[in-house]
Design brief:
Layout lengths: L6 E9 L2 E7 L3 E5 L6 H15 L3 H7 L3 H4 L7 E11 L2 E12 L2 E13 L4 E9 L2 E6 L4 E3 L11 H4 L5 H11 L2 E4 L15 E2 L13 H11 L1 H14 L3 E5 L2 E3 L2 E2 L2 E4 L6 E2 L5 H13 L7 E5 L9 H12 L4 E5 L3 H5 L6 E7 L2 E6 L6 H4 L4 H7 L9
Parallel strand pairs: 3-18, 3-19, 10-17, 17-18
Antiparallel strand pairs: 1-2, 1-4, 4-5, 5-6, 6-7, 7-8, 8-9, 11-14, 12-15, 13-14, 15-16, 19-20
C-alpha cells in the first residue's frame, strides 16, 4: 500500500491575488467565488509545487510567464508556500519553499522540510537551505550535510536530494503526483482523441484529454469488474435509457467503444455521443479511477452538464475524496446545492486581494433550516460575489 501524508494546511504568500492566504485542507474542497478572485490561482499553486517536485520548476515558471507574472502585482518581490502534512497522529511535516525575484529571473530562497513531534516536542530537519547554503539530512550519519555534487540553483532541494531518506522521498513523490484536470479544456470536438478508437493497453485513468478513456474503461471491465459496474450503474442513473458499454475491436490491438441506448436497436459510437455525455463519462471514469493520486485538482467540472447531473457528480466527488484530497473550482450554483458547508471554501476579494473562509465557519444553521446552500450563495450570505 502506498504511504500518503494527508495535507492539513497550506499557506500561500505573494502569488497573484493570493497575497496572504492560510487554508485548512480537507478531503473535499469545492472553491466558489466570482471570476478573478483566485480560484484558478490556488490550482496553479498545486500545479507549480507538483512541477517543482518533478524537477520542472523552471519549465512551469516559463509557462506561467516568468516569476514576475506570478507575483502579487505591486506588492511582492517573492512568492512563498508552506504545506503541512500529517505523518502520524502527533507528527507533522512542514515543507516550505520561497522563490525570490532576481533580475529578470528567479532564485530559490529558503527551502525547508521539517518533522515536528508534538509528544516529545522534538523536530528533525530533512532539508535546510537558504540560497546557496544547502544542507540535507543524511540518514547514515544522522546529521545535515552539504551536497557533494553540482546543485542546480533553479530546481528545488527536495527534487535534488538523494533518494535515500524515506520521508522526504514520500513527500516528493506525493507532490510530484498531484494531477490537474480541466473540464472546460477537455477536447470533445469531432476529431478529438476521446472520440477515436484507442490502443488496447493497461490504463487506470482516462487521461487529461480523454485519450485513454476507452482503454481505461475496457481495462477496468477486464480487471476490476466491481468498479466498472459502479461506473455503468452511475451512467444508468444519470441517463435512464443507458443500457451498457461495449468495446468492439476495429483493428489489431485497437478498440472502439459503443454506448447501447434502450431507445435504439444499434449502439452509438463515441463520435455520435453529445458533448455533455462525453464530459460526464470522462469525469465519472476519472473519479472512480483506482489510482487517484494523493491530491487531485479539477477545474469547472460542471461545463456542458445538465443541472440534474450535478447531484450525481457531487456523489462521485464525495466517493473520490475517500481516496484522494479533491480540490474543485466551480461557478455552478446548482453544484453547490448538493454540498454541505464543510465542503465549500468561499473566496472573496478585498482591495484586489483574495480572502478565503470555509462556509461552516459562518453562522448558517438557522438559514439552512429554510434555504438550500446555493440559495444562500445567491442571497449573499456566503460571500463569494463581487462587492457592489
Amino acid at each position: 500500500m502506498i504511504t500518503r501524508y494527508p495535507l492539513t494546511q497550506i499557506n500561500i504568500a505573494g502569488y497573484r491575488r493570493l497575497f496572504s492566504i492560510d487554508m485548512e485542507m480537507r478531503p473535499l474542497t469545492v472553491m466558489i467565488g466570482a471570476n478573478g478572485v483566485g480560484k484558478t490561482s490556488v490550482l496553479e499553486v498545486f500545479d507549480l509545487l507538483a512541477s517543482a517536485a518533478q524537477g520542472k520548476l523552471k519549465n512551469i515558471l516559463s509557462k506561467f510567464g516568468g516569476i514576475e507574472d506570478i507575483l502579487t502585482y505591486d506588492k511582492s518581490e517573492k512568492v512563498s508556500f508552506k504545506l503541512s502534512m500529517e505523518r502520524a497522529a502527533s507528527t507533522l511535516l512542514d515543507y516550505a519553499l520561497t522563490l525570490n525575484k532576481k533580475g529578470m529571473s528567479y532564485e530559490i530562497g529558503e527551502e525547508t522540510l521539517v518533522q515536528e513531534n508534538a509528544d516529545n516536542h522534538k523536530s528533525l530537519k530533512y532539508i535546510d537551505a537558504n540560497r546557496s547554503d544547502i544542507r540535507y539530512f543524511q540518514a547514515d550519519s544522522n546529521k545535515l550535510v552539504r551536497p557533494t555534487w553540482e546543485h542546480s540553483p533553479f530546481e528545488t532541494s527536495l527534487f535534488q536530494m538523494p533518494k535515500l531518506s524515506e520521508v522526504p522521498e514520500i513527500v516528493r513523490q506525493q507532490l510530484a503526483a498531484i494531477t490537474y484536470y480541466s473540464a472546460y479544456a477537455l477536447n470533445v470536438g469531432y476529431n478529438a482523441p476521446i472520440r477515436s478508437p484507442q490502443k488496447m493497453q493497461p490504463a487506470t485513468h482516462p487521461g487529461h484529454n480523454g485519450e485513454d478513456l476507452v482503454t481505461c474503461l475496457y481495462y477496468l471491465r477486464e480487471t476490476d469488474k466491481i468498479r466498472f459496474e459502479v461506473i455503468e450503474d452511475t451512467l444508468a442513473v444519470a441517463f435512464p435509457s443507458f443500457e451498457r458499454l461495449d468495446f468492439p475491436p476495429v483493428a489489431a490491438g485497437t478498440l472502439a467503444m459503443t454506448w447501447k441506448d434502450k431507445n435504439f436497436y444499434k449502439p452509438l459510437y463515441m463520435n455520435q455521443l453529445s458533448e455533455g455525455i462525453l464530459r460526464f463519462l470522462w469525469l465519472i471514469t476519472l473519479l472512480h479511477s483506482p489510482d487517484l493520486t494523493a491530491v487531485t485538482l479539477i477545474d469547472e467540472p460542471e461545463v456542458s452538464l445538465h443541472p440534474q447531473l450535478l447531484s450525481i457528480l457531487t456523489d462521485a466527488n464525495r466517493s473520490a475524496s475517500e481516496h484522494t484530497q479533491l480540490i474543485v473550482a466551480t461557478h455552478s450554483e446548482r453544484l453547490v446545492r448538493f454540498l454541505t458547508p464543510q465542503n465549500v471554501l468561499v473566496m472573496d476579494e478585498e482591495e484586489g486581494l483574495a480572502q478565503v473562509k470555509w462556509a461552516d465557519t459562518l453562522d448558517l444553521d438557522e438559514w439552512l433550516s429554510e434555504y438550500a446552500l446555493d440559495e444562500l450563495w445567491r442571497m449573499g450570505r456566503l460571500g463569494g460575489r463581487i462587492a457592489n
